[in-house]
Amino acid sequence: MPLAFLFPFSCMAIWAGNAIVSKLAVGVLSPAALAWSRWMVAAIILTPFLAHRAWQDRAKLRAGFYQLAALALLGMVLNQTFGYYAAQTLGATEIGLMMGLTPLMTVLLSIWLLRERPTWGALLGGVISILGLAILLGQGDPSRLITQGIHIGSVYMLLSAATYALYSVLLKKWDLGLDNWSMLYGQVLCSLLFLTPFYLLVDGQWPDGRALWLILYAGIPTSALSPWLWMQGIALLGASRTAIFMNLLPVMTAALAICWLGEKLTSYHLIGGGMTLLGVLLAQLLVQPVALRRRARVVLASCRED
To answer: Would you give the end-to-end CA distance of the chain in angstroms?
Structure first.
């Protein structure tokens, strides 16, 4: 399909827009209220289409409830809530750049949890991304991380990226025998089980009219439509080729932040963010497995011959 790339491309554009919504919601809607209301809207939108399918799959959903709950907690509750709290103090540009670390974190967690062999891209990309992240977090001066520590918003954003990376790995590891739509719907319902008491305890205020369009954007295109676009991209392009489009997220977010929010790109954004994205890209493109033991045996054999 020649235009198959439009599916993941559109998904990234929607996610970038969600970073802008996160910033616009500051002072209008609390992170707890936004996290809860977006998944409530998604549940309302998806229920007419997926309730019957979920009923047919009820035995599988019941059997995989704990795994679905864990996935919902990571990918829909913690990931989004950490991101919304980060938006209280970080710019949308920083949010996009740090969320761009997710593919690299996914690769590194896959090595640990899925016992995948480390690749040269993961090792080299990891080092470059860490250096870039130090420049980004230190606002051009990595020594600030030692003298002043990491900004709380950056901590929230790193946790957001890490939880989504872990979510992606576990999604690959656990085979619950469900199709993608049933998996999504089950996770949406589980996320409400976690978020409803959190929202009532932390906020409990009904959102006012000013927040309506923010909630609708977060609930419909971001929560209900973008998963379908991403799944379509994987079905047509394959998981590896689709994952490459994650590298567009920081670029799209920065562009929207400049146009909509008036944010300005600085040298540390370009240098630190560029190094971070380069590391992520290398991790995805250089997939040759590391074979240190074999190389060591070759070197040892050549030494013996000499």
So the answer is: 56
